[in-house]
Design goal:
Layout (H helix, E strand, L loop, with lengths): L7 H14 L8 H17 L9 H6 L1 H25 L3 H15 L2 H4 L9
Helix pairs in contact: 1-4, 2-4
Length: 120
């Protein structure tokens, strides 16, 4: 199933079932899950460490490396979804709330094409 026909709820249920089948809830407290997110994110970053911007196209064209990167993204996502389950949060709500706060903090007309406030 692709993104087009998979809901966040289905992904959350998938990871919950995976965890339950292995009796891993005992290990899945917020601290351990947050640490796991950070660890997997670091493993993702390793694929880009020491790669110059002009080399990125070559890295991403390599099917083996692209697969390894995809695996790390999946690992990060699994731990994020497991953390959301443990904290009983609603991803769509917290995502949209954060996006709205960011839109107010970084208005498009002031930040289009730049990452910092224009000089006054």
């Amino acid at each position: 199933m692709s993104d087009a026909d998979t809901t966040i709820r289905q992904l959350r249920e998938d990871i919950a079932r995976f965890v339950d089948e292995r009796d891993w809830r005992q290990f899945h407290d917020p601290k351990n899950l947050a640490m796991s997110v950070a660890i997997e994110a670091a493993e993702l970053m390793e694929h880009f460490q020491w790669v110059r911007s002009e080399q990125l196209d070559d890295v991403l064209a390599d099917d083996r490396r692209r697969g390894e990167i995809a695996d790390e993204i999946a690992d990060v996502t699994c731990y994020v979804l497991a953390l959301i389950n443990v904290l009983e949060l609603d991803l769509a709500t917290i995502f949209r709330d954060k996006l709205a706060r960011s839109a107010r903090k970084y208005p498009a007309d002031e930040f289009r094409g730049r990452y910092h406030k224009p000089e006054e």
